[in-house]
Amino acid sequence: FFPPQVLLLACAEDLECVPGFQQKVFYIEKPFEFTEDQLVLKLKFDDCKGNNKLNFEVSNPDFVVEVDGSLVALKNVSEAGRALFVHARSEQAEDMAEIFILEANEKRGALKEMLKLEGNLGIPRQKRAILATPILIPENQRPPFPRLVGKVIRSEGTEGVKFRLSGKGVDQDPKGIFRINEMSGDVSVTRTLDREAIANYELEVEVVDTIGKTVDGPVRLDISVIDQNDNRPMFKEGPYVGHVMEGSATGTTVMRMTAFDADDASTDNALLRYNILKQTPTKPSPNMFYIDPEKGDIVTVVPPALLDRETMESPKYELVIEAKDMGGMDVGLTGTATATILIDDKNDHPPEFTKKEFQATVKEGVTGVIVNLTVGDRDDPATGAWRAVYSIINGNPGQSFEIHTNPQTNEGMLSVVKPLDYEISAFHTLLIKVENEDPLIPDIAYGPSSTATVQITVEDVNEGPVFHPNPMAVTKQENIPIGSVVLTVNATDPDTLQHQTIRYSVYKDPAGWLEINPTNGTIGTTAVLDRESPFVQNNVYTALFLAIDSGNPPATGTGTLHITLEDVNDNVPSLYPTLAKVCDDAKDLRVVVLGASDKDLHPNTDPFKFELSKQSGPEKLWRINKLNNTHAQVVLLQNLKKANYNIPISVTDSGKPPLTNTTELRLQVCTCKKSKMDCSATDALHISLTLILLSLLSLFCKSFA
């Protein structure tokens, strides 16, 4: 260990008395360790008026300055940081000294660097006439102001010149914080400083003549604001909520609490320590959790058995956490926040039925919920460790039953989904199992209480008769004689133990074509069955019949009958269109294409045969040409005069026997000019071949009379 080397930065011994430390900045070599009561260096403070009530304060509590100015260590200190600050105050003055602690390889060039102004303190070169040593000012100083904080010295005197100070805090915002006595060089602060607002000021000082011309400088004057412990720790990231699984091992980390202190992070003013002030509730242990004083990590400290959510007074704990600066010392400032810790549930309790056996009664033929099965589960109702899942593990071969969970009550709702038949089985026994949505933890298993039996009694009811088969189908030819038998239906009563009789009746007969014998169920016709009727869809006529038993009250069954009607040739073909127009001077004498249709089905329809009735007169006026099985074309053999003509055309279908229909085609011969057809006068010139034939026939008959 080498004794500290003290390097003089600025000394004013040969100048007039300046209140404050006679040397403000020191450099010492960092030892392996500062030993207890070791003299580090000797400080000299003089307020120029006797140093009455002189007091020293050191930034590091491991050091102290004695009355004679000796800086000594209070204990063995291996790490003191990069600098120490000593604040001195008497009745007349106060000042700050700064001691920089250098590594061995830094000391060699320290003096050289100071003289070259290559440090961060703005120390002037030796040749400069202005000596502006750094100024250290504690924040939060109390009035009166202005307060002398330092002095700038000019080695060549101040006669005929004056000092001028500039920079942020003087003539730049925030303006007016510092000022300098133009003649003496005394630097004063005019108000309280706040390090958290501005920690450092870089000013410039120069010497000017009477007309303001710079004589010397400018040189930098650094003013540093020394931190005071004036900011409480604050928790800014709340709300703070942590989760820990029940049964967790001792030492499980739950969450981290971090506070913020606006003071200087390099000092104890922002060195935080954490502590739990209060725990609510205090059971099963008043000390369920521990907080790491330095990191702020909250961990469990109780055995896993005490972290049992189901036995706790509440699964939610609230911790009042305190953060204290000054490393947790009594003089430190504090801030508090509340940490909420939730004990999360794990599936360590299987669901259990409240009864070993449940009873249910249901009427045959009815579906729906028949019984609610209740279970108990000590786990958290908001989790899958509580929600139940039911299953039928025996007694349901026909899948007549289903069970679902009521999401509000967690009960099992047992339902009949396929109607039960009393005559087949009057009793059913089901074995039901309940589990949780979440799997149980490995050392827990489902026990006998997780299964239950349901005894179901089926009540007999009067069921309606049943048609066999249903629906019923039969094929008949249309136009069969009235009174023909269509079908004899068969209905039976499911209530085989009641020995009831059955009667039949017509329920729905849209066309009114049918009747049924009430005793034996024989269905007959009361009208002609017409396949072309609008009541027939896709050749099928549908009617409904009832079978009614003799119970009290009687029960009814409904049967459906589908009659497929076979076609017979009972509809003559029809011709379309029945009106055509042509110009009296038309070059194209193909007048119209005619089509034929038939309501019957093939082979009682096409191919159709088209024919013209016999034409009168010496000349034939038109002919008809067949185009295909369903269409023909009427062609004029010559142009006709403007008039109306009725042309009889017969159409014959292909049925056996065939049916023929004769239709008159009305042909209008019109005058056509400039693409306009005028048929207005044709009615007056109407010539009917039919009338001509009748007239000729009348004359012929008279000649023989």
Characterization of this structure:
With 705 residues, the chain is mainly beta. The chain is 4% helix and 42% strand. Strands 45, 47, 50, 51, 52 and 53 form a 6-stranded mixed sheet that branches. A 4-stranded mixed sheet has the order 2-9-8-5. A 4-stranded mixed sheet has the order 11-18-17-14, with no helix packed on it. The N and C termini lie far apart (173 Å).
Question: Quick summary of this structure?
Answer:
By secondary structure, this protein is mainly beta. 4% of the residues lie in helices and 42% in strands. Strands 45, 47, 50, 51, 52 and 53 form a six-stranded mixed beta sheet that branches. Strands 2-9-8-5 form a four-stranded mixed beta sheet.
Low-confidence sequence ranges: 1-15, 107-127, 683-705
Helix amount, in percent? Answer: under 10%
Calculate the mean pLDDT score and round it. Answer: 86
- Structural class, by secondary structure, is mainly beta
What percent of residues are in strands? 35-45%
- Give the tally of β-strands: 53
Please tally the helical runs, counting DSSP H or I stretches of 4 or more residues: 3
Our measurement of the CA-to-CA distance between the termini, rounded to an integer number of angstroms, reads: 173 Å
Tell me, what's the shape?
Answer: elongated
Rg calc: 60 Å
Biggest β-sheet strands, sense, barrel = 6 strands, mixed
